[in-house]
Write a structure and sequence with these properties.
single chain; 212 residues; alpha/beta; five-stranded parallel β-sheet; 9 helices; globular; binds cobalamin
Length: 212
């Protein structure tokens, strides 16, 4: 485990961090391990923001580094993927919430395990989510939530899915910094976690398609 990359992200050294990601991936390092080091950097930046040591600018810059790293790693993650998708997942951050770092990380980890991921982005209207579910017919739908004001739109989406008769065709997951068992109950989800790895493990277990 190298702390160099995590440190470069915490110090917001964008070019240095992305260069390290690229060099490590080219040298054959496990892309999931590289992603994990980036995640640790991001979490530390979040903590520094919480304690007032960092400002908005640092947060946004660290988010950009993370996005760049996922972009560099994507082809390497793809190589490890099985040729046929093991399952389909729709992910979204719903209306009222614009946080996406955790969702993007969850999506990257799912892709690395062979899932076909449809990421609707942030501030997604419930009706748009329902349309996408109709179109894609996913095995899983994952809501990412970081802000309490998005609870209502998640509930609305869940109720719309129920009304349109789609709800029993997939498992609904909720995750993100402020997710908890009460949120799961409130929106009628099947699974809840604040850990992307647990979410991926749940998908693999549910679909019975772990490829070792
Ligand atoms: C970064 C950040 C921002 C960035 C977001 C950048 C981006 N592109 O996402 C910016 C600066 C834009 C921002 C804006 C705001 N923010 Co903000 N933000 C944060 C902060 C510091 C870190 C969040 C984060 O990215 N963590 C790192 C990621 C990797 O962690 P994560 O999201 O939890 O994801 C992990 C898991 O939860 C999981 N996961 C995530 N999603 C999913 C989904 C599924 C299905 C699964 C299985 C797993 C999973 O995967 C990840 C890895 O394990 C948090 C505080 C905190 N420490 O959480 C506040 C925080 C979330 N923000 C907050 C607020 C209030 C705001 C603003 C309203 C501020 C303002 N006054 O303008 C605006 C939001 C506007 C809006 N409508 O959304 C509050 C929310 C409070 C609340 N309870 O509602 C928090 C908690 C800060 C606080 N303590 O007050 N924010």
């Amino acid at each position: 485990m190298s702390e160099e990359l995590t440190k470069a992200i915490v110090e917001i050294k964008r070019d240095e961090a992305l260069d390290m990601v690229k060099r490590r991936a080219e040298a054959g390092k496990d892309p999931l391990q590289i992603l994990e080091e980036c995640r640790q950097g991001l979490t530390l930046v979040g903590n520094l923001f919480q304690t007032g040591e960092y400002f908005l600018a640092e947060l946004l810059l660290s988010a950009e580094i993370m996005k760049g790293a996922v972009g560099i790693l994507d082809p390497y993650l793809a190589k490890a993927r099985p040729p046929k998708p093991v399952g389909k997942v729709v992910v979204a951050t719903l209306k009222g919430d614009i946080h996406d770092l955790g969702k993007n990380l969850f999506a990257a980890l799912l892709k690395a395990q062979g899932f076909e991921v449809h990421d609707l982005g942030v501030d997604v209207a419930p009706a748009r989510l329902v349309e996408k579910v109709k179109e894609v017919k996913p095995d899983f739908v994952g809501f990412s939530v970081l802000i309490t004001s998005a609870f209502a739109s998640m509930k609305e989406a869940s109720e719309m899915l129920e009304k349109t008769g789609l709800r029993d065709q997939f498992k609904l997951m909720v995750g993100g910094g402020i997710s908890n068992p009460m949120v799961k109950e409130y929106i009628g989800a099947d699974f809840e976690t604040a850990d992307a790895t647990e979410g991926v493990a749940y998908c693999i277990k549910s679909i019975g398609a772990h490829n070792g």
